[in-house]
Amino acid sequence: MTSTVNQATRSRRRYVTAGLASMMGTTIEWYDFFLYGTAAALIFNKIFFPSIDPLTGTLAAFATYSVGFFARPLGGIIFGHFGDRVGRKSMLLITLFLMGIPTILIGLIPSYHSIGYWAAVLLVLMRFLQGLAVGGEWGGAVLMAVEHAPEGKKGFFGSLPQTGVAPGLILSSLAMGAVAQLPESDMLSWGWRIPFLASVFLLLVGWFIRIKVAESPDFEHMESKGDKVEVPALVVLRQYPKEVLVVVGGRLAEVTWFYTVVTFSLAYATGTLGIPRALMLDATVWGALLALFTMPIFGILGDRVGFKWIFLAGSVGILVFAPVFFSLLQTLDARSITMAVVVAIGVVYASLYGPEGGLFSAQFPPEVRYSGISIAVQVSGAIGGGLAPIVATSLLAFGGGSPRYIVWYLSALGVVAIVSSLLMHDPSKFSVLARASQPARL
């Protein structure tokens, strides 16, 4: 009896540690990633592209920002392959450093006035490495949480690495908000570098946390049975093309919505509408604080009523709230602006992102799961997130300063997400240890 109790205690400690480590790790990595997006919207056009007009400079800064998204699919393929072949844990340790070190180096890059266009070249290179890291990070963090979790709690534990996005966004917004209080000359000369250099402390914390996590039990079970495949990415594309497409379709709306709200609207509100950047940054922090609580709630609801139905509700939320969001920004009223951002992040986005860990991981069998979710999620991330600020800025110009075409764009993606969510598998389709079907082979 004592042995059974001790075993249950060890098992519980193992999956709780995995869930918390996934959340803390993604917090650190998303701090790094969001920090760049905020700086691209507010600062980088003046530091690295000062010789061109402000609008074109903003587009150029967003172009360097997009490089990180275009690198994500490559990172997903590389780390997905080794995550399915070697193990989940080792890939998470590598991606942590691959994200943290370039972030620190960004804080050391000289300005355009010091080394000319080489500054932009170095910026793009560091952003590319960040993209590789995020491309491999997301799938591994989600799987470590979901595959450690007991049945009936996979939605909740799958929401924990998703929830890590909220504190990452909070920390990055607070960091940039703090340096934004400096005089303009000080912020542009040295102040903006501090949040990037501070990433060294988060990097050390992340390493300490992740080194203590055990390998995924699903991977260990798969390894003991010899169920590995030689080239997981090819198996995914040949045997599971429908699963890839529906995850891409669902994810496109979510990631485009998020980066339109968090990155583009920051530039739109401050540049076009004249809203103080401190107000937008504060509103983003409040939205992320709400998401810190609502994402796990939506994960728990996914366990109760089904992941796909929660995700479907969030997709409908985009259709309903997209026009409301921009209308509230245009009021120029501080309370209305804050409410718009808080609801956009803490309710609409959280209802999409919270259940994704459980929902997307259920679309693929364990021997190709890391590759499957990484390829699908990162391809959609490159298309949706990478292009979101550029597409939105272009549509704003095409509409003569009116965001109506942006609303149509978001609404169309919401419809695609609704259809995609209806086509996704029930989580029992690829249940891990009880699955009776033979493993996929190339």
Textual characterization of the structure:
This protein has 20 helices and no strands. By secondary structure, it is mainly alpha-helical. It has a single domain, classed as MFS general substrate transporter like domains (Growth Hormone, Chain: A, Up-down Bundle). It is globular.
- Provide the helix percentage: over 70%
Strand content: under 5%
Gross CATH architecture? Up-down Bundle
Distance between the termini: 45 Å
> What is the number of domains?
1
Integer average pLDDT: 80
Describe the main β-sheet briefly. none
Number of helices: 20
The low-confidence parts are: 1-10, 432-442
CATH class group: Mainly Alpha
Q: Any idea of the CATH topology?
A: Growth Hormone, Chain: A
How many E-type strands?
Answer: 0
CATH superfamily: MFS general substrate transporter like domains
Give the helices and strands, then pairings.
Layout: H1 2-42, H2 44-48, H3 54-85, H4 88-106, H5 112-115, H6 118-148, H7 154-163, H8 165-179, H9 184-191, H10 193-197, H11 199-210, H12 217-225, H13 232-239, H14 241-271, H15 277-305, H16 307-330, H17 334-353, H18 356-361, H19 369-398, H20 404-423
